DNA sequence: ACTTAAATATTACGGTTGTAATAAAATTAT
DNA sequence: ATAATTTTATTACAACCGTAATATTTAAGT
């Protein structure tokens, strides 16, 4: 498996926007994040640039503007981070993790039910 | 809620040892981690020191040696990290997260069953 | 009391991150 | 063509991190 680039927390916020709206220009990314964060546009520029350097984003020039597309797949990235999280914090024991969420986050009955139905679905259907 | 100190990934490995064996001396921590990691003892010293500075550990002097005890609660820390992870990566949607684990990590039937039974336990019993 | 050994403390150093400011290049308007 | 504006590129800088090395303090032996 190819190794995905290291994406910092702030950079990840940028990635989320690009994943959602790509292809998207610098200004569009900036407009969006200026509204949803407390970041200065200059900061957002820097984050975008770093993501390009890291190989997480690529772009096409449309005359003066750059229009970005993700180079890393969202599900793959999140899946990898999730596995790594599970290993570091719960030694890979997913039951231990779920237990901790149930205790710590005090899941409501309806959340519990949703989870249960998730686990009850016939895995034969829906598979690849 | 009091804010827990920021603990880095390498520091967290040290914390795990202290959580497990506290009260524990510098040398005991070092011996343990030298075996389970590729770290130089000096590196481990540094990590311990930083954890003290950050308020994650405290110690008692027993003549020349320091004997450490955690100042942050393991479950509390992990719970907080877990909530934060869930929010950042899954927008707080625990079903989405579990779904992703099921898909990405290809959970076995027995794992699925364990999870299901976890969710089926009567929450009335065992509560505080 | 001195020397030695063991433990702790201080210093180092490059990479990453958060957070921008300044500089340069490219377009657009005049 | 120039000037003004917009976009991108370069530079900055401190905190945090991984990874130690060196220095100092303190206890133990002799």
Automatic annotation (TrEMBL), chains A, B:
Report the GO molecular function annotations.
DNA binding
For this protein, the record's Pfam families field holds:
Penicillinase_R
Q: Which UniProt keywords apply?
A: DNA-binding, Transcription, Transcription regulation
The reply on keyword DNA-binding is yes
Specify whether Cell inner membrane is a keyword of the entry: no
BP GO annotations: negative regulation of DNA-templated transcription
In which family does this protein belong, per the annotation?
Answer: Belongs to the BlaI transcriptional regulatory family.
For this entry, the protein name equals: BlaI/MecI/CopY family transcriptional regulator
Organism of origin is Parablautia intestinalis
């Amino acid at each position: 498996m190819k190794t995905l680039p290291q994406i910092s927390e702030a950079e990840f916020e940028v990635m989320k926007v690009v994943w959602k709206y790509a292809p998207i220009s610098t200004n569009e990314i900036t407009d969006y994040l200026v509204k949803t964060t407390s970041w200065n546009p200059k900061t957002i520029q820097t984050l975008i640039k770093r993501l390009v350097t890291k190989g997480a984003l690529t772009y096409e020039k449309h005359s003066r503007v750059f229009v970005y597309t993700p180079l890393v797949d969202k599900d793959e990235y999140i899946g990898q981070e999730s596995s790594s999280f599970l290993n570091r914090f719960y030694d890979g024991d997913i039951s231990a993790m779920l237990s901790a969420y149930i205790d710590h986050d005090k899941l409501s009955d309806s959340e519990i039910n949703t989870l249960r139905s998730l686990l009850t679905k016939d895995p034969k259907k829906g598979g690849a």
